[in-house]
Amino acid sequence: MKTTELFVSAPGRLALACSALLLAGSLPAQTGSPYLDAQQPIDARVADLLGRLSLEEKVSLVHADANFSVAGVPRLGIPQLWMDDGPMGVRAETGENFANANRSDDFATAMPATLGLAATFDTNLARAYGAVIGQEARQRGKNIMLGPSLNIQRTPLGGRSFEYMGEDPYLTSRMAVGYILGEQAQGVGSCAKHFAMNNQENQRNSINVLADERTVREIYLPAFRAAVQEAGVLSVMGAYNKFRGDYCCENDYLLNQVLKGDWGFKGLVMSDWGGVHTTEGAALHGMDMEMGSRAPYNNNRLADPFLNAIKSNQIPVSVLDDKVRRHLYVMFKLNLIHDPDVPLQTNAATSQLSTKEHQETARQIAEASIVLLKNEKDLLPLDAAKLKTIAIIGANANAKFANDGGSAQIKAPYEITPLAGISNRVGSGVKIVYAQGYALPTGRGGGFRRGGAAPAAPAPANDELASNAVEIAKSADVVIFVGGLTHGTGDSEGGDRRDLKLPGGQDELLQKLVAVNPKTVVVFNGGAAVEMGPWLAKTPALLFAWYGGLESGNALAHVLFGDVTPSGKLPCTFPKRLEDTPAAALNAYPQTSTNQAAGGGRGGRGGFGGSNDEEYKEGLLVGYRWYDTKNIEPLFPFGFGLSYTKFKYSDLTVVRGLNTEHPTVKVSFTIANTGKREGAEVAQIYVRETKPTVQRPVKELKAFAKVNLKPGEKQTVTLTLGQSAFAFYDPDKKAWISNKGDFDIEVGASSRDIQVHRGVSLAQQVAVPD
Ligand code: BGC
Fold it and tell me: Which H or E element spans position 58?
């Protein structure tokens, strides 16, 4: 018997020495076989290879063989398929039951939270972000990275908001496309997750989401559609929750009809970890690969039970063949199956682990993600030369976040805290005094449970910690308070926040700090909005810094001291209070009455009063669409963010294209930097239908451009809006309809700061199928 060494699936893993064993009904791998011929079209290679696989081998390709892998078929040169989380870097290796594998070679660059990436409104940075992860994934031997996470922030309570890209489908789509193109260009597949309507963590394994068709198509699906149709994402992960009665991993409508049917997705659908519940549901309703179910893996629903169902003719083999075809298609796309005798042409990606370059990219993205929310009397940027003592206060100033928060955790080679970053920046000429100020609850965080877990109860204000902080604040030239949320206080997979309050008595402490030192700069971390107390009116400067990855402290220092002009914009609305948020206002999420009665409820993880239905009562009115349509004033609106310089918008022209069947509108305007510093502005283009024939949000983001300008410089921005910028989804026609009639094109610095606008009318109604 001839033994051939066929491939190495991943560096550091065993090379597979395999026997070229002839199985009944299947052909062995041979140099010259059509599937090994890289000149053949992929579909032909897939068809040829499929014909060589035995039934058992095919089944082995549609379920896991370990935490993050699927077995290969060595005799045919099909390698094991390796995956990893995602989406903010390459997660450390796991051992039995996902425990830390305690290796020393499994670190990676911790990128800023993907919500922070969205706050940059910069698609080039999204590409750079994906490229870093793709390169490190190559180095770590991963074929598919489990990200980006594309669920819409329906409520700021959502525990995974930090991993998503905000409340707007257009912004999420643009960032997703950039990220995926950047990552897949490195020869690594992306996995768009969690498909779909996984917008809360509480009861995520049991809720049944009910949302109308327009809401689904217009709010929750566009980013996935863009990932498939514009970025060519190679895999999609089904979500844990149910949608309209069926688990998303066994959902014919989502997987077969929309994803594979309407959108023509050719890649593979994998389950979320443990998200498959039945053999028949998964097999027949579009699930291609069962992941995360418990060992022994041959008992998984898409393993022996599936094989038996095929053998007993309950499920046709064509169902299995389609899944295997998709798996092989992805493998050929990633160049994982190749002729062992022909030297591999790689795309020569520089696959290196957390290089200086990668860390630099992480820092640049973190800098661009920071949002300046308030800056009275130009307190910022600070001038280190004029300061003698800085009081740095707050638990987060001395905290690290990367290796926490659930499956998005990253074991970084280092992480610069704000305290370290500011100290490095100011050098020895300035005295830094630090006080923690408040205590944070310990509890949920790195040790999240897959099924959901409650965050620890908030710690009460701690008088001693607070008075120490007030003492040092009194005599400092400036106070830099770094607080907000942590993964342990609710920004984490597995559970949602109970409310939008700042944990640990920070409101009380801030009230005291601003009273003793009016030069108090407040910096918050977090994955979504927090409510802010009366101290806000007395604070001259406020910044939101998300979770900034391994370079977060340096990035923050660069913004505070003016090495970088802030340019981030909010990718999600900051409401004044939880009751203003759409789902809460409609008592849809959290259901406040149930919370109180059961001491839990959806907001507090209690029972559901008999029903698991989670009705998206707010429909289309998610995020700013709600606040604007209902005239509710937010604390800080979507798209808002200040700069150290000033911008002026002018000269808007709006020109309709001549082809009325393919409507286009060319929008052109000028932005000038009228301030004294170089800086970047994110110009946002919103479209409003003046007299809609169906309910429409008052305005919707349809384009944006980030423009960097020197003082006194100006630039003309020209963008073309296509039919989709004007369209709504018509469920009866199964098409996107742009009406004949008037629209207003609104250009501004945020959703509530429209600087210039102009009308345009479309000459005829146009319908485009989804
Ligand atoms: C998460 C996924 C993740 C998977 C593997 C699940 O609990 O929802 O996002 O990719 O675990 O860790």
Answer: helix 55-60
Tally of CA atoms within 13 A in the half-sphere of 284 that contains its CB: 10
Does the Cβ of 406 fall within 6 Å of ligand 1? no
Six-digit token string for 324? 């295997």
CA distances from 115 to 62, 228, 249, 526, 656 (A): 32, 21, 25, 10, 34
Q: Which atom of ligand 1 is nearest to the CA of 68?
A: 5
Q: Any idea which residue has 């802030």 for tokens?
A: 566
- CB proximity list for 166: less than 8 A, separation 6 or greater: 115, 118, 119, 152, 153, 172, 570, 571, 572, 623, 638
CB proximity list for 647: less than 8 A, separation 6 or greater: 671, 672, 673, 674, 675, 679, 681, 709, 749
- Catalytic sites, residue numbers: 272
Q: What is the pTM for the complete model shown?
A: 0.94
Structure confidence by residue, pLDDT tens digits, 393-438: 999 999 999 999 999 999 999 999 999 999 999 999 999 999 999 9
Q: How far apart are CA 584 and CA 577, in angstroms?
A: 10
For ligand 1, atom 9: residue with the closest CA: 407
Ligand 1 touching residue 450 (CB < 6 A):
yes
Give the three-state DSSP class for 81. strand
Q: Is 85 touching ligand 1 by the criterion CB < 6 Å?
A: yes
Pocket lining: 193 vs ligand 1, CB cutoff 6 Å:
yes
Ligand 1 centroid to Cα of residue 229, in Å, is: 24
d(Cα 736, Cα 602) in Å, to the nearest integer? 34
